[in-house]
Structures are given as structure tokens and as C-alpha cells.
Amino acid sequence: MRDNFQIGIAMSPRETAFGPLLFSGQLENGIRQLAQNDIAFIELSLRKTNDINTQELHKLLNHHNIKVTALATGQACLFDNLCLSNMNDESRNIAIDHLKSMIELAAELSSGAVIIGGIRGKLTGSEEDKKLQRTLGIEAIGQCAEYAKKFGIMILIEPINRYEMNWINTAEEGLEVIAQLSMQSLKLLLDTFHMNIEEKNMIEAIRPAGEQLGYLHFADNNRHAPGQGQLDFASILKVLNEIGYTGPIVSEILPLPDDLSALKDTAAFWKNLDYQF
Ligand code: LER
Ligand code: MN
Question: Which residue of 219, 233, 244, 248 could cross-link 69, Cys pair, CB 3.0 to 4.6 Å?
């Protein structure tokens, strides 16, 4: 079963107040631990493109035989106010240019995807302003997806729960935007932590995504490693099998009780998996 997927863990090369990332500021240690625990993929959450030294990272990844699934981008909106729904044209264009550099970096790292989650930015102000911000944000996502085509990079739209984001909260809303833009380079990223808050029925929310599903974040309901909470991962894996999903499944989890234990909990979850479908 686990061979159907690219199993990974999300990390941040720089120390960050953004929580669900392991080994923040200790990338070398994190990569070594991935290799030692038989996990072959990493997702990198970057605030700036120069959070990493590409050549050094290449060496490290090659040495441990680890590949990058995707670059996550939310930190730029959270900490530097680079957000795609910004009504100010100049600020929004800086955010778009930042994402274009992320797309180039993803290509350099042979990573297949760039994630658009928190970098959308929260909609603010009057209802009219919010509507405009949404329209501008969707247009910006389209520009990124267009740019990504040249590099063979996938842009992943991630629905995020209401406490962190006020547009595209559910799988259905993500699929609507993907249908609206209708671009091959756009796919859906589903995160089980957010789904547990927003979806009426997680399984029935995953099913209609079908081939549009490009990526998954696995975290349990408490944002610990899968298997450390109450979510029914057997049913989730069953529906993934039904829709023929074979992409990345990345643990985006809190470093609890500590980084290494959370990594090992993820490794154990996949090692002990004995679901037969
Ligand atoms: C990012 O992948 C995520 O899941 C969000 O919680 C970001 O705000
Ligand atoms: Mn996520």
C-alpha cells in the first residue's frame, strides 16, 4: 500500500513560528532522520527563496537519497504580507513575482509542485472589497499556473480551515476554482487536518476530486502524526485507492511530543499499515 504513494514530511529550513513543521531550522538533521527512518520525500516550507542554498541542499538530498515533493509558500503571506488577494496592485504583483521565483526554484530542485495555501491571504474589509480581493486572488493563481506550465510544475490549491483562512475552505470550493480557471497545471491539495474541521464527510469530499487530486497532507485531528488521533485513515486510504490516487502523502504535523518522535510516529504509521483493499 505505501508503495503507491510518495511518503514525506514537511519541514522548514529556517526557524519559524508557523507550527506544523518538523526540524525547523535543523534541515540537515531532519533530512538525515528521514533517511534513517525510511522516508524518501520532503516538503519544504520556505518564507524566502534564499532560505536554502540550492547547491548544498542538492548535495544533502543526493547523499541521503531524498526527493522534494513540493515547496510550500504560506510563510510569505503570514510574515511578510506577500499575499495573492492583496487589493494593492503593487503588493499583489510582488507576491506573484515571489511565487514565480518559487516555481523556478521548484524546477531547480526537481520538485514537482508549488503549494498555494496560506499565501492566498485572508479577505478583509467590506463585502465589496472581499469580492474584489477574491477575484484578484483567483486571477493571481491563474497567472502562477500559467507560469508554472513552462517549467512542468504543478500548482496545488489547498483548502484551509476557517480559523486560518476565509476563502476556499472546503474541497468542493477548491474544485470550483480549479474548474473556473481550467488549467492543466492546477490541482487540488487536501489536508486531513483542515478537512476534519470543514467537511461534512471527509470520504465523500475526497471522492469527487478524482484525477484533480494532486497531493495530500496527512495529519490527525490533533495535528499530530497520522494514527495519533481519532481520524479514520483506513477509510481515507480506501477512498484514495478507489479514485486511483498515487501521489505524495506528506505529514504536515506539529513537532509533538518532539520533532524526532513525530517523525518516527509517521514512519511507524506507514510501516505498520496492514490495510488490504
Ligand atoms: C499549510 O499547508 C496548511 O495546512 C495551513 O495550516 C497553512 O496555514
Ligand atoms: Mn496543509
Answer: 248
